[in-house]
Amino acid sequence: LSSLSSLLHYLTEIKGIHEHKNLIHSFKVGLALVLVSLLYLLDPLFKQVGDNAMWAIMSVVVVFEFYAGATLGKGLNRGIGTILGGGLGCGAAILAQNLGKVGQTSAIGTFVFIFGAAATYTRSVPSIKKKYDYGVLIFILTFNLVIVSGVHTEKVIKLTCDRLSAIGMGFALCVSTNLLIFPVWASDELHYSTASKFNKLACSIEGCLEEFLERIEEKKDNQSETSFNTCISLLHSKSKDESLVNIASWEPWHGKFGFSYPWHKYLQIGDSLGELATSILSLKGCLRSHPQPSSVPMKQSIKKSCEVVASLLACTLREHGDSIINMKRCRPAVLVVAKLQLSRLELSDAVLPCMLRMLPDDDGFAMA
Amino acid sequence: LSSLSSLLHYLTEIKGIHEHKNLIHSFKVGLALVLVSLLYLLDPLFKQVGDNAMWAIMSVVVVFEFYAGATLGKGLNRGIGTILGGGLGCGAAILAQNLGKVGQTSAIGTFVFIFGAAATYTRSVPSIKKKYDYGVLIFILTFNLVIVSGVHTEKVIKLTCDRLSAIGMGFALCVSTNLLIFPVWASDELHYSTASKFNKLACSIEGCLEEFLERIEEKKDNQSETSFNTCISLLHSKSKDESLVNIASWEPWHGKFGFSYPWHKYLQIGDSLGELATSILSLKGCLRSHPQPSSVPMKQSIKKSCEVVASLLACTLREHGDSIINMKRCRPAVLVVAKLQLSRLELSDAVLPCMLRMLPDDDGFAMA
Prior knowledge:
The structure is a homodimer.
Chain A: H1 2-14, H2 17-41, H3 43-49, H4 53-63, H5 68-97, H6 101-122, H7 126-152, H8 156-180, H9 186-216, H10 226-236, H11 238-248, H12 264-289, H13 296-326, H14 333-349, H15 353-367
Helix pairs in contact in A: 2-3, 2-4, 2-8, 4-8, 5-6, 5-7, 5-8, 6-7, 9-10, 9-11, 9-12, 9-13, 10-12, 11-12, 12-15, 13-14, 14-15
């Protein structure tokens, strides 16, 4: 085990922290697979479980996901889908057994069609698709397998229970391996990526200021696209955040996140930051298109006020980001807002009406 | 069947066209499930296939997707994953059979760990994750099932071939039901949604013009957010487009799309339209923050030029959208660009330097 951990250490030195997580995940999957294979490999276990051990292996392979929450969510979906599908399938199979041979076949065909089509239709309902899509899929699968097995096996109920217990074993093994050995929490990733967005936007604002100063000093050649791309990528991150929120909502109490933690608020913060990113993009558009004032004293007075406003905004954003990471309230909004309003007045005095009227959008946000 | 189609007609009258597609999809899934269940239900077929029919049912449930391309992609992934996993699993099982009891168990455990971990690691490589994630998953599953079955069955190869043929049957049934009965092509959806983006942006530009005119006439109360939201949603559509492109690339020649159709160009168009959306957002920001010129003759002269530019841009965008839908070249860029440059000159003459310098970004795009 020590040689394995040194190999791991060696491999992660070459690649980054994300590679590290991927490697650990791979080892965890390998371990879980070996453990579940023991159901086949050790004779005493195989005598107990028999060929149903196949279902345990299948569960481990399919349910084991990168994030702890995704594993739990998929596992619970699989469990509920199997129980419901198995129960209904048993009922329908027993119902059909009492009919004649032709009656049974046509009844089973009808059941399969109706339940299959209806369950597939519910998969297109957005709220079900979002959280229970996999569960409905497993429902369809189990219902179908159980009801058609009823034709050739008398002991439908025993068959279903055996499979269910095998799936349960697979799930238990999956969850324990995934959650006990270096778990990767989607909630952590969401938390830190949201906090880092504040920092990125602060850098973008500073980038704007830099470009403004360069334009004043008439060095027009190097337009950096970094802050522009940051804002665009922030606008594109919505779907990733949504899936992380979805996974995080499956994760149990851990670390600093309690039960019923308000994960959807991260989406709201993301939307607000998206609006701020749009404002920064607008500001950038204005910067690149407006004629700059040319008299030297005016330049100097604007320069100072702009520097003050930009650094104040960047500093406030960073403070918000840090307060999210540390989960502490930041200093009262009033203090920051008063300073911002003061700087805005100074800017008003120093002409540049365009730049001036642009700002309320941003500090309006920073207040929020 | 006619009563079924009238029921379908009745249901779709209540809901929209998308509901229509969902309903058809549900019926198709139901039909495919009934057909695959016949492997169990009809005795002559069951005698041929036996309990391996389970694998055919599983394949249908798991592989049948909404889009034709997704079904094909998943099916091919499943096929290739099964063949590779089955082949390697057979080889490893036969290799292990020659060792003693303890040797066999430990050899199988080692194989399971190494192949499981290595395959899981490849799932984190972006290019494999994008197109072959499901294939690798199935590889792990099949490899594992085949190698552990080798402990208790001598005829590993026969077992694997039987399962493979059952999966093949399921896949064939799936693909034929999905592609022959009202197929839903991701390529069509991508094509039309890209074309409609042009129209949406044209509407946004007209919305900007409207707001500008209202501001001139000093009706400042109704700020419509529609065009704003259109631009934002366009910026958020990137991940959906990416998945559609991925699915579309699995779809075979059909309708107007030939082999090796350049699907990635839709992403490039989407990016360019995203840039235009950002420009429109900037324009909107400027509109809402700048003091408007107050002298009446100036207003009138600006109004006319702005109307000309906006309608020219909107018209050009719509033309591009139509040309994508009809797959025809639109009229040469030179004509439009000349007109736009003329209007720009007129605008230059009519003051409003801010508005004027904003425009080159937009018509620069319309040229492209």
